[in-house]
Design a protein that fits this description.
By secondary structure, this protein is an all-alpha fold. It contains three helices and no strands. The protein starts with a helix and ends with a helix. Keywords: Membrane, Transmembrane, Transmembrane helix.
């Protein structure tokens, strides 16, 4: 695995590590999982807007326009949708458990 793809994966993991705890904090303060999910979505989307252009420029220099770059971006988009759905389920579950306690 080359450095550009490795850095791209590290940035994506960093987005998850930053956005989900922020969503948890907002959910606990406002006592609504929808606010937490909105925070997760907003923060992760804004951070993705910074990472995608970097990846496109770095990959264009390194790979010279191969299909792998496009496939990586499509895969990240699909995984992003899965991440938002899983975040929604986890936040809703945590919210329901805190209401039951």
């Amino acid at each position: 695995m080359d450095t550009v793809n490795l850095l791209f994966i590290i940035f994506l993991v960093a987005i998850v590590v930053i956005s989900f705890p922020l969503g948890l904090i907002v959910m606990k303060k406002r006592k609504d999982y929808k606010d937490g999910l909105s925070t997760v979505f907003l923060v992760s989307f804004v951070l993705l807007l910074f990472v995608f252009p970097w990846y496109q420029s770095a990959a264009a220099e390194h790979f010279a326009g191969t299909m792998g770059v496009i496939l990586n971006l499509v895969l990240v988009f699909v995984l992003y949708i899965v991440y938002i759905i899983v975040s929604w389920l986890i936040l809703m579950l945590i919210h329901r458990r805190s209401l039951a306690s």
